Sequence to fold (476 residues):
Amino acid sequence: MNKKALSIIPAALLMCGSFGLNAQEFNLDSLTLSGVTAIEVPEALEDVLPQGEDKSRAKPGPLARKEWTVLVFMNAKNDLSESSLLGLVGKWAERDIKEMKQVGTTDKVNIVVEHGKAGEGSRRLLINKKGGFFSSGETRYSEDKNSDMGDYRRVIDFVKWGKRTFPAKKYMLVLWNHGLGWIDPNLQQHAAGTGTDNKGILFDDDTKNYVRTHQLGEILRQAGYVDILMQNACLQQMAEVLYEMKDGAGLFVGSEETMLAQGFDYEQLLKFMNADTGFTDEKFSDFLMQWYRDFYAGGMSIGPLTMPLDSIPAQLSTVRSGPLSELPSRLDAFTAAVMANNETGAVRKAVADVLRFTSVDPSDKKKLFAYYADLYDFAGIVGRNARSQEARQAAGDLQGFIKERLVMRNVGINADAENGYAYSRTGGIAINMTLKAKTVPPQLAQIHETDYSTLSLSRDSQWDEFLAWTDGVWRN
Fold:
């Protein structure tokens, strides 16, 4: 296969996009926000299929209990349904389903998908091994041409249905779509997967709906515990997002940074699970980290071409759910020591130099408007530059907690040459951070539907108050 270097990664190849904001000219007057309040999360409909669901295809009775059921909520009702580069690639959901069909459901592992496609609604499928030309490799259980894949209640219904119909000793839930971390963008003016608001989690362009950060926790509360939750989406491996879901899953898999639309390799994943269904979280994490290293080393296949990925920074990690309950007190100990000792110099250094992830503005190469930063790296910079022993100790304690207890495995790949940092510095979990921009237009807040102070981590810790303090230190 010929190799040809491509100098850019188009937005169509990412599991997220951009807000399309210009770092110099924020013309957001057309955006409106009727009032920022905590989201009222209604109860889901108990075991009721959404209106319009075709029940005629439902198969009788649950199957025998297996070791694992993998539930993939695959929302391609957006630009991930049809995208292309040089006319060679597209249909990212279909590509991943094709990978699943190389292994299919076995006597040990069920692979179940709700596949939403732009303009066509969604189908609930049991994925089988594709055996020949006339084999589709799938069993269709239902079809809903009016499905809202951006409704968190549909995710709940899918998980409950999947558990009831395909019972197993353990469950994995994969949320497949775009991702934007904690920021829930205001979609009053724009479609979810195109143009200005080409980011979020589980965006449905047909219905203009998506799952908010608060609702992620509600999904697991009502659908029940899953042993592994994987987010096949950008920017989701951050403290604010995972803390919302901390009681509903055993292990969280995701990326602090953008992910390519190629996503996880489902063929390799299913082969790994079938080879040893009793795998530990550690063994599973090791498998994922090595796969990610190999993927970026080998490049991305696009038709007859192979796209080198050695200039694309990337990150993947697994986070334990149990220690997330301790995160507020760990953050409070760190922030209290920094503020009590007035470590303004250390904070300025950390805000300026911390490893940051994708900016809300795609042209912002200096990441002046990048909200998300690596928490481990931030604590390390503060600790190395703090004057007081108390602040240095608190920073070291926070880093130790992240490395030894909270994050199970982490891999950072390549470097951000523009900003001069290697992704090997990442610690595995991101957090909201004071922007590097000295002047922040007030209109920027209008892209947010959710008020940061209403998030569970903000309510349970002093991190939002600490950010207000660091904002003042940085801009003054």
The first helix runs from residue 92 to 101.
